[in-house]
Amino acid sequence: MEISFSIIDLFQKQFGITPQQYKFSSVDKRLDKLSETASKSKNGWPLYWDDAFGRAYFMPVFLQSDGTTDYIPLSYPVITINCAKTIISTALTERNGTVKEVIRLQDYEIKIRGFLVGQNNSWPEDGIIQLHDLYKNLQPLKIICPLTDIFLLSEERSANDKVVIKSLLFPEAKGDIKLCPYIMELVSDEDFNLNEI
Asked: Model pTM?
């Protein structure tokens, strides 16, 4: 039995967003025109990946557990990154406004929304188990994504692409039983040595 659905419609119904990277026909046309270097990030990771049905989409996300060589591609990911600073604002007498003191950059907060798709019109139980196993891992995970590489692989972070999954949510599905939406919230993690502080 053939599986047919519009991933854009699913994102709109479930999350209220319309991700442009899943307009497959326009992505496929652009891929034909891209050179090998234009289809990879500066770090060499692919900007496009194939979904379970062989359609290319933009901005894949992979996670890797410590001690393994397997990269797990997240299914139909849409990723956002929140960057924030810790700033102390102090009001002074006889002066409008405040004096700001930038203390530090905060951890990067990463949110990934997507859909698991079951094979052969079945419930995507294996995908749910795989995401849950990643969540239960108490060690930081490596994240591979051209967007997160820009923030996490910088010199001030010692080129560290480690993250910790803060939460994993499987909201009620507004659609078919072969589809399961997920929301994963992650936070950047850095190694540090207490002796150096």
From this structure: 0.78
